[in-house]
Amino acid sequence: MFKDLTLRQFVDDTSSSKPAPGGGSVAALTAANGASLIAMLCNLTVNKKGYEEHWEKMAQTAEYCTKTAQELLDYIDKDCAAFEGYMAALKMPKDTQEQADARKIKLDEAIVKATTVPLSLASTAAHLFTYADYAITYGNKTATSDGAIAVLLLKDAVKSALYNVKINLPSIKDEKQKRSVEEQAAELESYAENQEKIILEKVKL
Length: 205
Prior knowledge:
Blueprint: H1 7-15, H2 23-43, H3 55-90, H4 97-126, H5 129-138, H6 144-168, H7 175-200
Helix pairs in contact: 2-3, 2-5, 2-6, 3-4, 4-6, 4-7, 5-6, 5-7, 6-7
């Protein structure tokens, strides 16, 4: 599994001519790092004098973000699996009408998965802005920069994942499904950009 590689191995594999891991997996790692930094800021607030009223919620937020970071790492391999599924469908035989029909069905299924996986990644990452906002607003002021970096990473992860959505979107045959995905992607992108601006305005360094 790609998520279990060392950092050096992951970077080397990404740098190679192999098609995976690629941009989607890097977006997943970026989102996981953003979640981890939120958890870090919260953990640096718990038991810190002057923040007593927030200790309990900070601890809960740290736990949630740590768990979410692990879920986001899973998208490294989900993205690779979606790509590999599409490539496998492309290689299916099409010599007979029956084979061609079976190949078309698998291709349609694969392109939908290759689109919905990064869409789900973007949604999961975007959900963390609320926690980043809380951590920056009420957390340890000496670690505010870590929270700010988390926000930047989350925005980049959302937009990066959505590039994979956009590149696959034209290949979806179901027009209703295509419009739904397109609308969700536009909403997530707008939300991420707005949240970045709103939250970073609170960062005074």
